[in-house]
Design brief:
alpha+beta, Helix Hairpins, D-amino Acid Aminotransferase, Chain A, domain 1, OB fold (Dihydrolipoamide Acetyltransferase, E2P), 6 domains, 7-stranded antiparallel sheet, 25 helices, globular, binds 2-(butylsulfanyl)adenosine
Length: 668
C-alpha cells in the first residue's frame, strides 16, 4: 500500500469507526456487529503501524494510550464552573419559581433534567477536535484529565462541526460497570467502592489512563461553557445543538411551561429513578431563555436561574432476620442487623450497624421485625425505624451477651462509654481485626490480603501477629481457598513491597489506641525512627503541640509492653523499614541520599555530633546503623581514636569516611 492509498483508507476507517462508535455508545443503537467494528479497528491499527506519521490525535486508536502521568496539571476554567443551590421540597421549588417570576415576569419556560450522580467535567473542543478535558476542582481551577476522558467512548474525539467551544457535563459510572468492578475487587480482596459516584471519581483520578479505560465510564453533557458566537437563544436549543454535534445528552430532559409541570416531572422521577441504568440524585431545573438567565444573574456560588431538587434519601422496607455481633480491633462489640437483601440507592444492602444496645432499645428493634432502611449520606446503611404494626408476636427481644462472642471473656463497659468491650488482648477477634487494619490501604497497604484471606490465615494458625505475615511461605498460601499461583505471587510481591513503606504507615498499622493516621505522620516526622519513638517519654511526647495526654499515655504504655517490643524486633528481622521517608527528609536532601539502604557503622569519637545524633541523621536519610563491622557493612564512619572496628573495616576493604567527609555528605 502506498502512502496516498493509506491516507485515504485511514480517513474512510476513521469515519466508519466514529460512526459505529457513535451509534453504539451515544445512541445505544448499533448498526453493525461488534466483530465488524473490531475488524475495521484492526485494519486501522495495521495501517497506522506501517505509516506512523499518519496517526492523528483524533484517531479512534488513540483513546487509550500514552504513559501514566506523574501528576495532573492544573487548568484554569475560562468561566467558573458554578454549583447549584438546592431545593428539598415542593415548597422550596415554589419559592424558587416565585423569585424567578419576580425578576423576569410571567413569560418564561423551564427545562428539567436528571441530576446525574457523577462528577462535573469540562471538555474543550478546538476546530471540532477534543483537545482538553478537566475536572471542576474548586470551580475556578481544575485538573487536566484529558487522557482519562479520552477513554470514555461516548466522548467524540471529533465533532460533526469544526467548532471552538467548551462543553460541560457529568462523567459517571453506569450501575452495571460499578457492580462488575466491585465484584472483581472483592475477588481480589481489594477495598470496595461505596457507590458509583466514588468509583467514577476514583477512576478519573488515576494517573494511568489504562485503569480509567478498564472502568467503563460514561458521560452526559448538559451545557455549554460560554455560548459566545453560537447561534442559540435558549438552553433547550443548546441541548439540541450538543446532540447534533455528536455529544451524548441525556434524553429525558423536558421543557416545562410552569412550576406545576416541573413538580410533576420531579415526582414522576422520584418514583422511577431506580429503573435507570445509572444513579441520579435529583432533578435540575433551569430557566430556558439565555437572555432571561442573564437577567437573573448569579450569586457568588450559584446561578439564580437554576436550582437542584435533591431526592430525599431512598427508604425501603425489609425484614430484619437476625442480629449478629462483631468484635472490632479495639475490642468494641457491635450488634449488626442482618437484613433480607434489598436495593437501596443503587446497591444491595444486607447488613446495617446497630451501634449499641441503647440504640436498639431506643428504636425498639426486635429480631424478625419489618424495618425501614435508608443509606445515611446515601452511603452507610441505617435502620430508620420499625414497623411495629406489622408485628406478629413471633419477634424476639435481643440482649447483648455478658461475654465476648469470640473468646468468652467478660465484656466491660468503660466509664463514659455506651459500648461494651472485650478487653482480652489475646482474643482472636482482636488479633484478626488488628491484622485487617495492619494491611489496610492507609496502613501497610498490602493488596490481595482481604478479610477473607486473613480469616483463613488466622484459622489455619499461619498468622498470629503482623510479623508472621512477613514469613509466609508460597506453599502455605497455595493451599488457601481461591488462591492460585498468580494471586499468591502478587500477594507475596505486595508483602515484600510493604517492607519499604515509610514509618508512619507502620505506626498507623500497629493500631495504637488514639494514634490515627495524622498522629502517626506527626510522630514519624518528629522522631524519624521507630527506635527513637520507642524511647520517648510522656513529657517529651506532650511537648509536641498536636499530641495530648491521652495519646502520649497510650503510646508509652504500648511500647512498654514486652510483647510489643518482641513484635517490633520480629518486624525488624523481617526487614520492615522503621524509618520515616516522608517530605521532611526530601526537604533535607533533594537528591537520592547516599546513605539510603546502606548498612553503616559508627566508630571512634566524633567532634561535631554525638554518636546518637549521627545515627539519627543517617536513619532519617534512609540508612541503617549497626553496631559491629561485618561483610554486610557498606560503610564505616570513623572518628578520633577509632580502634578495632576501623582495623576490621580496613581488612575487609569496606569504604571508610572520616568525620569531615561524613558532614560534607550530610550537607548534600
Ligand atoms: S447544571 C451552573 N445539569 O450537579 C449550572 N448540573 O451543583 C451547572 N449535575 O456538580 C450545573 N447533572 O455537575 C447541571 N443536568 C445537570 C446535572 C448537573 C448533574 C451536577 C453538576 C454539579 C452539580 C450541581
Amino acid at each position: 500500500m502506498d502512502r496516498g492509498t493509506a491516507a485515504k483508507r485511514i480517513k474512510e476507517l476513521h469515519n466508519l469507526l466514529n460512526q459505529y462508535n457513535y451509534e453504539y455508545y451515544v445512541l445505544d443503537n448499533p448498526s453493525v456487529p461488534d466483530a465488524e467494528y473490531d475488524r475495521l479497528m484492526n485494519e486501522l491499527i495495521e495501517i497506522e503501524q506501517k505509516f506512523p506519521d499518519l496517526v492523528v490525535p483524533e484517531s479512534p486508536t488513540q483513546r487509550v494510550g500514552g504513559e501514566a502521568l506523574s501528576a495532573f496539571e492544573k487548568v484554569e476554567h475560562e468561566s467558573p464552573m458554578l454549583s447549584l443551590a438546592n431545593a428539598f421540597s415542593e415548597a422550596d421549588l415554589r419559592d424558587f419559581d416565585r423569585r424567578v417570576r419576580q425578576a423576569i415576569g410571567e413569560h418564561y419556560a423551564y427545562v428539567c433534567e436528571l441530576k446525574i450522580d457523577g462528577l462535573a467535567v469540562s471538555l474543550r473542543y478546538e476546530d471540532g477536535l477534543f483537545v482538553m478535558g478537566s475536572t471542576r476542582g474548586d470551580g475556578m481551577v481544575g485538573e487536566n484529565i484529558t487522557a482519562n476522558l479520552k477513554t470514555i467512548r461516548s466522548i467524540p474525539l471529533r465533532l460533526n462541526e469544526n467548532l471552538n467551544f467548551e462543553v460541560r457535563g457529568e462523567a459517571y459510572m453506569p450501575r452495571k460497570s460499578f457492580e462488575q468492578l466491585n465484584k472483581m475487587r472483592a475477588q481480589k480482596g481489594e477495598m470496595l467502592f461505596a457507590n458509583p459516584r466514588n468509583a467514577a471519581a476514583g477512576s478519573l483520578r488515576q494517573l494511568d489512563p489504562r485503569i480509567a479505560a478498564s472502568r467503563h465510564l460514561d458521560i452526559f453533557l448538559y451545557g455549554i461553557g460560554e455560548a459566545g458566537t453560537l447561534d442559540i437563544s435558549t438552553h433547550s436549543e443548546s441541548l439540541e445543538l450538543l446532540s447534533r454535534l455528536g455529544l451524548k445528552v441525556n434524553k429525558e430532559w423536558k421543557k416545562c411551561l410552569n412550576i406545576n409541570e416541573v413538580i410533576e416531572y420531579v415526582s414522576s422521577w422520584t418514583e422511577r429513578r431506580s429503573s435507570l441504568d445509572y444513579d441520579i440524585d435529583g432533578i435540575v431545573i433551569k430557566v430556558d431563555s439565555l437572555k432571561q438567565q442573564e437577567q437573573l444573574g448569579r450569586t457568588a456560588k450559584s446561578p439564580r436561574w437554576a436550582i437542584a431538587y435533591k431526592f430525599p434519601a431512598e427508604e425501603v422496607v425489609t425484614k430484619l432476620t437476625n442480629i449478629e455481633l462483631s468484635v472490632g480491633r479495639t475490642g468494641v462489640v457491635t450488634p449488626t442487623a442482618i437484613l433480607e437483601p434489598v436495593q437501596v440507592a443503587g446497591t444491595t444492602v444486607q447488613r446495617a450497624s446497630l451501634h449499641n444496645e441503647d440504640l436498639i432499645r431506643e428504636k425498639d428493634i426486635m429480631i424478625g421485625d419489618w424495618v425501614v432502611v435508608k443509606k445515611a449520606g446515601d452511603i452507610i446503611p441505617e435502620v430508620v425505624n420499625v414497623l411495629t404494626e406489622r408485628r406478629t408476636g413471633e419477634e424476639t427481644v435481643f440482649h447483648m451477651p455478658a461475654q465476648c462472642p469470640e473468646c468468652g471473656s467478660d465484656l466491660v463497659r468503660l466509664e463514659g462509654e455506651v459500648a461494651l468491650r472485650c478487653i482480652n488482648p489475646k482474643c482472636p477477634a482482636h488479633i484478626r481485626e488488628s491484622l485487617i487494619h495492619f494491611v489496610s490501604r492507609n496502613a501497610m497497604n498490602i493488596e490481595g490480603l482481604g478479610e477473607k484471606v486473613i480469616g483463613q490465615l488466622f484459622l489455619r494458625g499461619l498468622v498470629k501477629d503482623a510479623a508472621d505475615l512477613y514469613f509466609l511461605e508460597k506453599e502455605e498460601l497455595l493451599k488457601l481457598e481461591r488462591m492460585g499461583e498468580k494471586s499468591v505471587n502478587n500477594l507475596l510481591e505486595a508483602i515484600e513491597k510493604s517492607k519499604s513503606n515509610s514509618l508512619e504507615k507502620l505506626l498507623f498499622g500497629l493500631g495504637i489506641r488514639h494514634v490515627g493516621e495524622k498522629a502517626a505522620k506527626i510522630l514519624s516526622e518528629h522522631y524519624g525512627t521507630m527506635d527513637q519513638l520507642m524511647k520517648a517519654t510522656d513529657e517529651e511526647l506532650q511537648s509536641i503541640p498536636e499530641i495530648g495526654e491521652k495519646m502520649s499515655d497510650s503510646i508509652v504504655t504500648y511500647f512498654d509492653n514486652e510483647e510489643v517490643k518482641q513484635l517490633i524486633d520480629e518486624l525488624k528481622a523481617a526487614g520492615v523499614n522503621m524509618v520515616y521517608r516522608g517530605p521532611r527528609q526530601a526537604a533535607q536532601s533533594n537528591v537520592e541520599s547516599v546513605f539510603a539502604g546502606k548498612t553503616i557503622v559508627l566508630t571512634g569519637k566524633l567532634e561535631k555530633l554525638t554518636r546518637g545524633e549521627a545515627k539519627k541523621k543517617i536513619e532519617m536519610l534512609g540508612g541503617n546503623v549497626t553496631g559491629s563491622v561485618s561483610r554486610k557493612t557498606d560503610l564505616v564512619i570513623a572518628g578520633e581514636d577509632a580502634g578495632s572496628k576501623l582495623a576490621k573495616a580496613q581488612e575487609l576493604g569496606i569504604d571508610i569516611w572520616d568525620e569531615e567527609k561524613f558532614l560534607e555528605q550530610l550537607e548534600h
